[in-house]
């Protein structure tokens, strides 16, 4: 199968964006239009005059991908062009922070679009600054761990729940460690009429601090600890959950793989903080019966 | 060429300015309308919404967005798939669009947007001046300013034709003074559907987002390439100078109506004093000129219709032999103590052999009324300049000293 995201782009080895985009395009096929807000994915795939995109693709600004997607969908409808899927693919900052208003508007209006959030839990393109997707106690360049700080003082924003609250017919979480699962979910999202949402947990080798060969392992560990539950919500109800069962791992195993949590293992009081993160995982496990 | 108006009064109706614009937009057969309500633009989008509800705009989608930022952003997408795209806004809404305005121009998307000119906050003020659109002069949008509701109606079709020209492909703002034009009822001939269908053919851009021919829109350009993109935008703006004129002429040939191309003139041929201004104030100035001409005061008017691209040559030609030029600005460049039209006019004269003195008045801020007596006083001050030179180059008009 021909990849619709051509090789030769400028992504890092082990780049999460490249994987997420490739999986999304494998699900979507050729008859789609992709919108990407400002971020790594845009920068690494389209340095003029080159492009990695073998589908029509547009980048406008950082905060407006959902609005641009709305306009594409409306334009296609007005011109009587049927069948072409409209997909927006943005990072956590573009989705959960600066682009949230436009995203909310697009979902409230009910456009037939699919939004894929590639969540690497910080502003990686600008140098690993904290976003609304940054997890509790992660050290970033704007929430650094220090003598009186364990890093980011707040848990992740629960973005899928926000989209569910908009009445989206289909919301699913995915992980780069489970490509078949992700491709199936994106396919389903695209085929369902209305605004649908995929939230992909996407480890970033540069920002999280792990070897470039470990992106999939880190992603898998997030799922196996319960920190990143995989589930589907259809018309507001959880319809499917990926069970962890006997594979359940303590959060330490996930945290110690990454530089951004290193301070938790060296600072006084770190163990208590790790316990708080374990509590977040336990709550997920209980809530989704993982 | 002479432009004698050929308007059959039998075809005239009395409608609100906003309705005239909404009707003109409908007549231009838009495919996507995207807008967010803001006073005094609201009647335009309400009238368009009613047209939609009554099924009167075929092949069109109306997007009720959640902000002006998204209003224009949605049109980035729709225009890129080849849909004729329209919005309307004003003041705070236009300022909120600032980032998107640059983006639309840079991506060469020929969107047309009506701006019902209004003051900007703070203090918050919903009444007319032109600070909002003037503040966006460097964003790469063609800016046309209308004198009355017939002109803004007609200008709507002209703007689509100018913007969508393959040599231009730049967006346009059609600017009408808020309330003064948007909420006034005047007689006009509504834009004719049969003529408009001939004047403005369907939008068929050379490049669109199309799965059959996948293209990348909005790639990033590093220092090797960025300058050339900016240069080409400027080239398109320069080409628009001719296009604005030729489209106005073509419009006159087909519709019989003409309100100027880049500029228009009123009693300028023998004028010692030439007043320059934009928008609805033009009507007041013409009345004052009529009154003063009876008293043999040699005063004329240069109406600036296109502020971007700036019609330097056209202006220079008209003011070359005047004894004084008076520029009226419904905007201020704070820190310069001057309005934009005044600043631009002075700048085009430097390095030329034209030595006419130019004075500026900042006028009508936040909807302050501009009575004929104020224009007459300004003209009297201009006569003084002819005799004894410039005393005050640029100033606020009708300041209430007791409030300061």
What's the layout of helices and strands?
The complex is a heterodimer of chains A (290) and B (404).
Chain A: H1 16-28, E1 32-35, H2 40-45, E2 57-58, H3 65-78, E3 85-91, H4 92-97, H5 100-109, E4 114-119, E5 145-146, E6 149-150, H6 159-164, E7 170-175, H7 179-191, E8 196-201, H8 205-209, H9 215-225, E9 231-234, E10 237-241, H10 251-255, H11 270-287
Parallel strand pairs in A: 1-2, 1-3, 3-4, 4-8, 7-8
Antiparallel strand pairs in A: 5-6, 7-9, 9-10
Chain B: E1 13-16, H1 17-27, E2 32-35, H2 42-53, E3 61-64, H3 68-80, E4 85-89, H4 91-96, H5 98-106, E5 112-117, H6 131-134, E6 142-145, H7 149-164, E7 172-177, E8 185-188, H8 193-199, E9 216-217, H9 226-255, E10 263-266, E11 273-277, H10 281-294, E12 299-304, E13 306-308, H11 312-319, E14 324-329, H12 340-349, E15 358-362, H13 372-388, E16 394-396
Parallel strand pairs in B: 2-3, 2-4, 4-5, 5-7, 6-7, 11-12, 11-14, 14-15, 15-16
Antiparallel strand pairs in B: 1-8, 6-13, 10-12
Helix pairs in contact in B: 1-2, 1-7, 3-5, 7-9, 10-13
Provide a descriptive summary of the structure in words:
The complex is a heterodimer of chains A (290) and B (404). With 290 residues, chain A is an alpha/beta fold. Helices cover 37% and strands 15% of the residues of chain A. Chain A has 11 helices and 10 strands. In chain A, strand 5 (145-146) and strand 6 (149-150) form a beta hairpin. In chain A, helix 1 (16-28) crosses helix 7 (179-191) and helix 3 runs parallel beside helix 5 (100-109). The longest helix of chain A has 18 residues, at 270-287. In chain A, 56% of the residues are buried. The model of chain A has no long low-confidence stretch (mean pLDDT 97). Chain B is built from 13 helices and 16 strands. In chain B, the strands form 3 sheets. In chain B, strands 3-2-4-5-7-6-13 form a 7-stranded mixed sheet, with helices on both faces. In chain B, helix 13 (372-388) links the parallel strand 15 (358-362) and strand 16. In chain B, helix 1 (17-27) packs parallel to helix 7 (149-164), helix 7 crosses helix 9 (226-255) and helix 10 crosses helix 13. The longest helix of chain B is centred in the middle third of the chain and has 30 residues, at 226-255. Chain B is globular and about 70 Å long. Classes of the chains: A alpha/beta (290), B alpha/beta (404). At the A-B interface, strand 1, strand 2, helix 3 and helix 5 of A face strand 3, helix 3, helix 5 and strand 9 of B. Strand 2 of chain A pairs parallel with strand 9 of chain B.
């Amino acid at each position: 199968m021909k990849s619709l995201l051509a090789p030769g782009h400028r992504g890092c080895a082990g780049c999460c964006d490249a994987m997420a985009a490739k999986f999304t395009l494998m699900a979507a096929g050729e008859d789609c239009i992709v919108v990407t807000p400002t971020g790594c994915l845009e920068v690494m795939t389209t340095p003029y005059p080159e492009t990695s995109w073998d589908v029509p693709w547009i980048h406008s600004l950082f905060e407006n991908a959902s609005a641009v997607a709305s306009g594409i969908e409306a334009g296609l409808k007005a011109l009587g062009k049927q069948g072409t899927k409209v997909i927006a693919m943005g990072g956590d900052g573009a989705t959960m922070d600066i682009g949230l208003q436009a995203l909310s508007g697009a979902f409230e209006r009910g456009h037939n679009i699919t939004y894929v959030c590639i969540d690497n839990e910080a502003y990686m393109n600008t140098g690993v600054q904290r976003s609304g997707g940054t997890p509790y106690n992660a050290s970033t360049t704007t929430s650094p761990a220090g003598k009186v700080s364990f890093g980011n003082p707040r848990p992740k924003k629960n973005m899928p729940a926000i989209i569910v609250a908009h009445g989206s017919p289909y919301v699913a979480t995915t992980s780069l460690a489970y490509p078949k699962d992700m491709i199936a979910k994106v396919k389903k999202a695209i085929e369902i009429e209305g605004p649908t949402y995929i939230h992909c947990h996407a480890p970033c080798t540069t920002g999280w601090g792990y070897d470039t060969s470990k992106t999939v392992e880190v992603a898998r560990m997030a799922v196996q600890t319960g920190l990143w539950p995989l589930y589907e919500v259809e018309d507001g109800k959880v319809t499917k959950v990926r069970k962890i069962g006997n594979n359940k791992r303590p959060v330490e195993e996930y945290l110690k793989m990454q530089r951004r949590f290193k301070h938790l293992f060296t600072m006084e009081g770190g163990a208590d903080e790790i316990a708080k993160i374990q509590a977040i995982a336990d709550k997920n496990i209980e809530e989704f019966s993982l | 060429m002479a432009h004698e108006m050929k308007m059959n009064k039998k075809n005239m109706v009395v409608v609100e300015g906003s309705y005239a614009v909404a009707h003109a937009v409908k007549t231009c057969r838009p495919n996507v309308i995207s807008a967010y309500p803001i006073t005094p633009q609201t009647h335009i989008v309400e009238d368009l919404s009613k047209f939609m509800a009554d099924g009167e705009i075929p092949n069109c989608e109306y997007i009720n967005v959640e902000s002006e930022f998204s209003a224009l952003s949605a049109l980035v997408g729709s225009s890129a798939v080849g849909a004729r795209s329209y919005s309307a806004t004003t003041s705070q809404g236009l300022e909120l669009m600032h980032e998107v305005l640059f983006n639309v121009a840079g991506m060469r998307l020929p969107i047309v947007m009506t701006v019902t000119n209004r003051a900007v906050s703070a203090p918050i003020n919903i009444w007319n001046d032109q600070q909002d659109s003037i503040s966006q002069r460097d964003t790469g949008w063609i800016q046309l300013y209308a004198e009355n509701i017939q002109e803004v109606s007609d200008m709507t079709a002209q703007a689509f034709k100018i913007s969508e020209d393959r040599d231009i492909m730049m967006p346009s703002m059609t600017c009408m003074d808020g309330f003064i034009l948007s909420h006034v009822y005047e007689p006009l001939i509504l834009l004719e559907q049969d003529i408009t269908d001939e004047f403005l053919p369907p939008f068929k851009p050379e490049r669109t987002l199309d799965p059959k021919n996948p293209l990348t829109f909005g790639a990033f350009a590093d220092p090797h390439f960025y300058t050339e993109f900016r240069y080409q935008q400027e080239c398109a703006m320069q080409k628009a100078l001719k296009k604005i004129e030729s489209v106005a002429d073509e419009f006159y040939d087909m519709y019989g109506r003409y309100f100027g191309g880049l500029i228009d003139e009123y009693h300028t041929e023998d004028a010692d004093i030439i007043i320059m201004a934009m928008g609805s104030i033009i009507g007041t100035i013409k009345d004052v000129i009529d009154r003063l001409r009876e008293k043999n005061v040699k005063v004329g008017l240069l109406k600036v219709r296109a502020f971007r691209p700036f019609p330097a040559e056209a202006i220079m030609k008209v003011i070359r032999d005047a004894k004084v030029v008076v520029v009226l600005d419904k905007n201020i460049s704070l820190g310069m103590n001057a309005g934009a039209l005044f600043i631009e006019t002075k700048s085009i004269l430097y390095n030329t052999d034209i030595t006419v003195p130019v004075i500026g008045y900042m006028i009508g801020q936040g909807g302050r009324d501009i009575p004929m007596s104020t224009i007459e006083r300004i003209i009297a001050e201009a006569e003084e300049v002819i005799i004894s030179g410039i005393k005050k180059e640029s100033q606020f008009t009708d300041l209430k000293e007791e409030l300061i």
